């Protein structure tokens, strides 16, 4: 029960990696707010997880929606002590084919959403005398790759924002870290051309496989828990050695 008495908001938690975070958090004793743009799927998961989970609709790019989610979390469970900024989108196209719309959408979800989440939970975490913010970035937030310009731009921004927020919020006992997954078993990894690209990438991963979602969740749990009480402003890579030679 590493997360006993923790109150966590997890974004993009209706499916894939976010859903696994939610399941594991409840198993570890946390009270979890499952947020997603797809409320129906989020509610289905919350019903499955029981009384320690609720579902709320959240468009991470909307400040008013964030405010509403934090208020409802406090009403139900008390002040927020953990935020997992997991919601994300990946649009992978060659530069000449990447549209302004693609770039703006990626920015709004992957970058602006993280900024708004951090900004909005800080007053609640101050009430709790501390907290942990875990921003899900990517190995593309440390390096980059062809066709990943929009995605990498936002994920690099998450890395930078994490460091800045950690430096600013440490005085309030609020820790901020980023997690950088490599190739993960998730619905996003099975879409169209991405699936073919990933099959090729796996051949170059030292562990010769993609990660299971729970392998990422275990790291997120560590960062959300008091076990990581002296870790902040850091990048935690979970990529099977994918970028170890870069």
From TrEMBL:
GO MF annotation terms: androstan-3-alpha,17-beta-diol dehydrogenase (NAD+) activity
Similarity section: Belongs to the short-chain dehydrogenases/reductases (SDR) family.
SUPFAM superfamilies, per the entry: NAD(P)-binding Rossmann-fold domains (SSF51735)
Keywords of this entry: Oxidoreductase
GO biological process, one term: bile acid metabolic process
Enzyme Commission identifier(s): 1.1.1.53
Entries under InterPro entries matching the protein: NAD(P)-bd_dom_sf, Sc_DH/Rdtase_CS, SDR_fam
Pfam families: adh_short_C2
Protein name listed in UniProt: 3-alpha-(Or 20-beta)-hydroxysteroid dehydrogenase
Gene that encodes it: fabG3
Record has Ion transport as a keyword: no
């Amino acid at each position: 029960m590493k997360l006993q008495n923790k109150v966590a908001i997890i974004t993009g938690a209706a499916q894939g990696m976010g859903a696994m975070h939610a399941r594991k958090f409840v198993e570890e004793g946390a009270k979890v707010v499952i947020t997603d743009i797809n409320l129906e799927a989020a509610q289905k998961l919350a019903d499955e997880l029981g009384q320690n989970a609720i579902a709320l609709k959240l468009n991470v790019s909307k400040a008013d929606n964030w405010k509403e989610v934090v208020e409802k979390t406090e009403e139900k469970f008390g002040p927020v002590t953990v935020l997992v900024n997991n919601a994300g989108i990946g649009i992978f196209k060659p530069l000449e084919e990447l549209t302004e719309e693609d770039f703006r959408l990626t920015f709004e979800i992957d970058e602006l959403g993280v900024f708004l989440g951090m900004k909005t939970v800080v007053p609640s975490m101050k009430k709790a005398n501390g907290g942990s913010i875990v921003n899900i970035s990517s190995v593309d937030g440390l390096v980059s790759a062809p066709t990943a310009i929009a995605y990498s731009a936002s994920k690099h921004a998450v890395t930078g924002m994490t460091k800045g927020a950690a430096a600013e919020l440490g005085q309030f006992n609020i820790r901020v870290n980023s997690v950088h997954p490599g190739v993960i078993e998730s619905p996003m990894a099975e879409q169209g051309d991405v699936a073919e690209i990933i099959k090729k990438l796996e051949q170059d991963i030292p562990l010769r496989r993609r990660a299971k979602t729970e392998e990422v969740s275990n790291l997120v749990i560590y960062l959300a828990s008091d076990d990581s009480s002296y870790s902040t402003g850091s990048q935690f890579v979970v990529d099977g050695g994918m970028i170890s030679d870069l």
